[in-house]
């Protein structure tokens, strides 16, 4: 038999144990404060995430799903980064190395394609050339940024006439069409003098339903068309339009009249010339003395007077030249050719 004191102590101990058990049960949720529940939940979510999340490269850049990376919308008709009127000056001249640094997006050989949309046209820009390196550097300084903002898939081709003989601008343009077409399936060709810079980047270097005259408001003519048939400086043809007119004449040696010949080829082929608004089509010419070997040639007028009878035989289909070399630099491709000499 337990004594009365022992029974009292036992009763107190049982009572205290019951109270403690009740307190523990009523406050069991407080264990979450120590991380017990969170620990097991974290282990479960971690195991699940290891099977479902996309991989992340070591530099922390999220990996884009292939379907998102390969699907691009067409570039807009009105490129969003255009600035409009530009201030064009020729008081400073950068080296080719400096120009390459300023245009890191240009691929070797003078090519560019917008990375975030599908360009509307593949554009070859053809420049007839000889002894105009300082003009070319000015041209590259302004045109590469303009062309990038216009979002075309473009390439720059400088077609150099070898030797010091009489210059033939139009024949070099035909050479440029042929040589550029060997490298890529271009659907638009811009034929540009090296000394003409657009003063507004909304003057889009692209082709349309008709041949386009992009230098229709030149500063040397008071920013207006000197006469209706003027078609010089910078012009644009689709591949089909160029072939329809049989390209340019090969028979204009020296300065003068080949632009008028080209205009007549367009109209005789049943096409008209498209021009931008005069405020959009403003261009500035780099002033210079006439080049040696490119003097005015009075014989060209006789060639022009016969063009209606010779246009289908004289041009792209009759082009003959010898390729001397192709040199690629960061900002352009130079193609040097021997185009012969004028008939005696």
Whole-number mean pLDDT: 85
What would you report as the Rg, rounded to the nearest angstrom? 36 Å
The structure class reads: alpha/beta
Low-confidence stretches: 28-67
The major pleated sheet works out as: 8 strands, mixed
Strand content: 15-25%
Sum up the overall morphology in one term.
elongated
- Percent of residues in helices: 25-40%
Q: What is the succession of H and E elements?
A: HHHHEEHEHEEEEEHHEHHEE
What is the terminal-to-terminal distance?
148 Å
- Number of DSSP helical runs: 10
Oligomer: single chain
What's the number of extended β-strand segments?
11
What does this structure look like?
- This protein has about 350 residues and is α/β, with parallel strands linked by helices.
- The chain has ten helices and eleven strands.
- The protein has helices spanning about 5-25, 35-50, 65-70, 95-100, 135-150, 170-185, 240-245, 260-270, 300-305, 305-310; strands at about 110, 120-130, 155-160, 190, 195-200, 210-215, 215-220, 235-240, 280-285, 320-330, 335-340.
- Strands 1, 2, 3, 4, 6, 8, 10 and 11 form an eight-stranded mixed sheet that branches.
- Residues about 30-65 have low confidence and may be disordered.
List keywords for this structure.
single chain; 344 residues; alpha/beta; three-stranded mixed beta sheet; 10 helices; 11 strands; elongated
């Amino acid at each position: 038999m337990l004594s009365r004191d022992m029974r009292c102590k036992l009763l107190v101990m049982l009572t205290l144990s019951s109270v403690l058990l009740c307190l523990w049960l009523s406050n069991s949720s407080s264990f979450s404060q120590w991380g017990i529940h969170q620990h097991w939940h974290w282990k479960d979510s971690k195991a699940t995430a290891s099977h479902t999340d996309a991989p992340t490269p070591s530099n922390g850049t999220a990996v884009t799903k292939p379907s998102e990376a390969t699907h691009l919308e067409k570039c807009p008709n009105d490129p969003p980064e255009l600035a409009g009127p530009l201030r064009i000056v020729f008081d400073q001249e950068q080296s080719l190395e400096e120009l390459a640094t300023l245009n890191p997006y240009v691929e070797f050989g003078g090519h560019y394609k917008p990375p975030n949309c599908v360009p509307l046209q593949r554009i070859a820009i053809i420049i007839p050339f000889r002894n105009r390196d300082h003009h070319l550097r000015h041209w590259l300084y302004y045109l590469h940024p303009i062309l990038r903002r216009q979002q075309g898939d473009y390439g720059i081709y400088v077609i150099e006439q070898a030797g010091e003989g009489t210059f033939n601008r139009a024949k070099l343009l035909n050479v440029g069409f042929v040589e550029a077409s060997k490298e890529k399936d271009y659907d638009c060709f811009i034929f540009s003098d090296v000394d003409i810079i657009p003063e507004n980047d909304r003057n889009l270097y692209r082709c349309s339903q008709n041949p386009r005259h992009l230098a229709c408001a030149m500063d040397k003519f008071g920013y207006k068309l000197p006469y209706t048939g003027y078609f010089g400086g910078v012009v644009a043809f689709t591949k089909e339009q160029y072939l329809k007119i049989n390209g340019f004449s090969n028979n204009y040696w020296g300065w003068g009249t080949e632009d008028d010949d080209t205009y007549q080829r367009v109209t005789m082929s049943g096409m008209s010339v498209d021009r931008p608004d005069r405020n959009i089509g403003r261009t500035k010419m780099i002033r210079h003395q006439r080049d040696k070997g490119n003097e005015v040639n009075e014989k060209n007028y006789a060639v022009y007077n016969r063009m209606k009878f010779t246009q289908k035989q004289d041009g792209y289909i009759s082009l003959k030249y010898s390729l001397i070399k192709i040199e690629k630099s960061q900002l352009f491709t130079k193609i040097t050719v021997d185009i012969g000499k004028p008939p005696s």
